Amino acid sequence: MINCNCEFVVDDVNSTNWEAHYNTCNVILTQREKNGEFPNGRPRSADGTLLCINKNLNKISGDYLYHLDLGVSTHDLRALFGDVKFVCMGGTAKRVLDCAKFIGKEIGCHLPVGTDLIDITASSLRYSMYKIGPVLTVNHGIGISTMSVVLQEVIKLLRYSGSKDPIVFRIGTSGGIGIEPGSVVVSEKGFNGLQKNTYDLDILGKTVSMPAILDKRLAQELASLSTDDDDFKTLIGNTMCANDFYNGQGRTDGPFCEYTEEDKFEFLKKLQSHGIKNIEMEVTCFSALTYKAGIKAADVCVTLLDRLKGDQVTMPKNLKHSLEIRPIIIVTRYIQKYLKKHGKLPFGKC
Ligand code: R2B
Ligand code: URA
């Protein structure tokens, strides 16, 4: 008999329709193992640390995480990142700095007097990364290609650091379909542009399809943290991942367009019939890679417009910034609940 080891963060609600387990639970991992999903062994050990399932890495002395400019032989990754419990990823460097500042304030995490948040990966000249107590924030740029590179290096970083049961959030923006702009969508599933629930990658000349699975229970817990006082709605829905902002999302305002407005609406309606509430550019890869790594993950995005009403994102930049904080607010509530449960709120010195 395998025991559930979920340790839910939100369990004080009527959870009859909720998923019974996080997808990193022993029960689920055992099922996945029986399904043959882990030919190189389970991706995590019983204590929640991530295991190195690519045996080739054992042959490299001092793995170097090129795009982070951090390495196993150049940095004490355990000392620097061993206490990381949450990773918040977002598109822009500014958003992840704002995110670190916001979370730090909300969890009562104080940096030593006279010090400030520093960009840990500034020397990489590629990405920005900040650490505030148990939270790491990292930007990933636009689209799967830049996100996939930094996510894979973050996964390796979490393994080398010995971080226990890390949870990775993507905090993003998106275009909504038939929902009020400014709403927050917590993704249940990621779909590609062909409405397939997979991340498809060409490897050695063949297309490999990976299931784009997010943690449904985590999504339910996050969505439950919206309150009546919020001036925005938070809902669970499916999310489409496009490989392009313009034609790939059915826009008609790009430099090229060889379809009609009617074709566009037909496509958007088709997406709606799959329960798709928003379109962004990373969710399939994000969900597939975290799932493979045995990491709980959630994609939480604010919608900047309703695509049934238009294509242009015309809101002033200050309004956009005020909307971008909304997914961060929801995720911060989850982090606060976790820390409170573990007697670590306020977090204190970090
Ligand atoms: C949402 O917004 C960005 C494009 O503007 C992209 O990163 C995404 O997923
Ligand atoms: N990001 C996207 O990818 N699409 C939108 O419509 C808005 C933000």
> Would you tell me the overall average pLDDT?
96
| Distance linking N and C termini | 40 Å
Helix content: 25-40%
Describe the sheet with the most strands: 5 strands, mixed, barrel
Q: How many structural domains does the protein architecture include?
A: 1
Return the CATH topology: Rossmann fold
Q: Which structural class should the secondary elements be placed in? A: alpha/beta
Poorly predicted sequence stretches spanning 5 or more consecutive residues:
none
Distinct ligands: 1,4-anhydro-D-erythro-pent-1-enitol, uracil
Corresponding CATH superfamily: Nucleoside phosphorylase domain
- Rg: 20 Å
Keywords:
350 residues, alpha/beta, Rossmann fold, five-stranded mixed β-barrel, 8 helices, 22% strand, binds 1,4-anhydro-D-erythro-pent-1-enitol, binds uracil
Write a compact overview of the structure shown.
The chain has 350 residues and is an alpha/beta fold.
Task: Kindly describe this structure.
There is one protein chain. By secondary structure, this protein is of the alpha/beta class. It has a single domain (26-349), classed as Nucleoside phosphorylase domain (Rossmann fold, 3-Layer(aba) Sandwich). The chain is 29% helix and 22% strand. It contains 8 helices and 14 strands. It has helices at residues 26-34, 77-81, 93-106, 144-161, 216-223, 261-273, 283-292, 317-341; strands spanning 64-65, 70-71, 86-90, 109-110, 129-132, 135-139, 167-176, 184-191, 198-203, 206-211, 234-241, 276-280, 296-306, 348-349. Strands 7-12-11-8-13 form a 5-stranded mixed β-barrel, surrounded by 4 helices. The structure holds 1,4-anhydro-D-erythro-pent-1-enitol and uracil. Uracil binds next to β7 and β12.
